[in-house]
Amino acid sequence: MSEFSLSNSGSRKITNRSVYIAYEMSGKERLVSAVLTVLCGEPKFCGSTDDDIIRLAAACAGNNPAFLCKLTCYARSVGNMRSISCPQHRHVLTAVIAREAHAYTRRTIRNVVVRPERNGHF
To answer: How far is residue 34 from each of residues 31, 52, 98, 120, measured CA to CA in Å?
Structure first.
């Protein structure tokens, strides 16, 4: 319980798009949040995050391509981002990995692209 009682004096507060005070997330945290919770191309109250996802993924591919590969595979397998949720995110992330982090392209494609008969969706 003590881990939740830590002082937040070092955390930075910002004003979010809804004009409320919020805590600023790191680039990795914003990318994970957007990939797992936001639908691509859908109208949103606070504005579109589609360009942010591409920008954050490209920055992450330059700094930490292994994390981006793991996030893409996690969104596909554990996060259940299959045909119902938002398959565009994993395709966008796979394209960013193919363009920016060539060493992780094969591993990502093997774990993200699944044939329909292996997936159970026909």
So the answer is: 5, 9, 20, 27
Query: Does the residue 11 lie in any domain?
Result: no
pTM: 0.70
Report yes or no on 3 lying in a domain.
Answer: no
Phi, psi at 66, each rounded to 5°: -65, -40
pLDDT band at residue 86 using 50, 70 and 90 as cut-offs: low
45 in any annotated domain: yes
Is beta strand 13-15 parallel, antiparallel or unpaired with respect to 21-23? antiparallel
Reported as a single tens digit per residue, the pLDDT across 91-117 is 788 888 998 888 999 998 888 877 665
Q: Which two tokens stand for residue 97?
A: 């990995």
